[in-house]
């Protein structure tokens, strides 16, 4: 999924992944929180399935979105484009 924000491209590598958030595109579809605590105890396929429901945003972009400063359509478009790119690389 990467080490940088899908919206603003903030990327300081692996050392800064703690400032990245997985934003669930459809909150009601969220099965569990994507924290290190939760992910380390689960099979990769379950984690990947949950990650696939999310856009990777830095904490600033995530907070701006949650407070209505970034339109839903913008995040949806980013989500669609990024997952298409990821799936193309995997397949």
Tell me what the structure shows.
This protein has 91 residues and is α+β, with helices and mostly antiparallel strands. Helix content is 43%, strand content 11%. It has four helices and two strands. The protein has helices at 36-39, 44-51, 59-66, 72-90; strands spanning 20-24, 54-58. Strands 1-2 form a two-stranded antiparallel sheet. It is globular and about 35 Å long. The mean pLDDT is 93.
How would you summarize the topology of this molecule?
Elements: E1 20-24, H1 36-39, H2 44-51, E2 54-58, H3 59-66, H4 72-90
Antiparallel strand pairs: 1-2
Number of helices: 4
Mean pLDDT: 93
Q: Report strand order across the widest sheet.
A: 1-2
Outline the biggest β-sheet: 2 strands, antiparallel
Proportion of residues in extended strands: 5-15%
Which regions contain 5 or more consecutive residues with pLDDT less than 50?
none
- Approximate helicity band: 40-55%
Listing every helix as H and every strand as E from the N terminus to the C terminus, the arrangement reads EHHEHH
End-to-end separation in angstroms reads 15 Å
Write down the overall geometry.
globular
Number of strands: 2
Question: How much is the radius of gyration in Å?
Answer: 13 Å
Structural class: alpha+beta
């Amino acid at each position: 999924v990467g080490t940088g924000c899908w919206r603003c491209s903030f990327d300081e590598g692996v050392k800064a992944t703690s400032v990245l958030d997985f934003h669930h595109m459809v909150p009601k579809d969220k099965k569990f929180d994507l924290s290190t605590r939760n992910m380390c105890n689960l099979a990769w396929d379950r984690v990947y399935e949950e990650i696939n429901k999310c856009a990777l945003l830095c904490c600033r972009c995530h907070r701006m979105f949650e407070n209505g400063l970034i339109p839903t359509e913008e995040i949806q478009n980013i989500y669609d484009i990024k997952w298409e790119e990821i799936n193309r690389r995997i397949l």
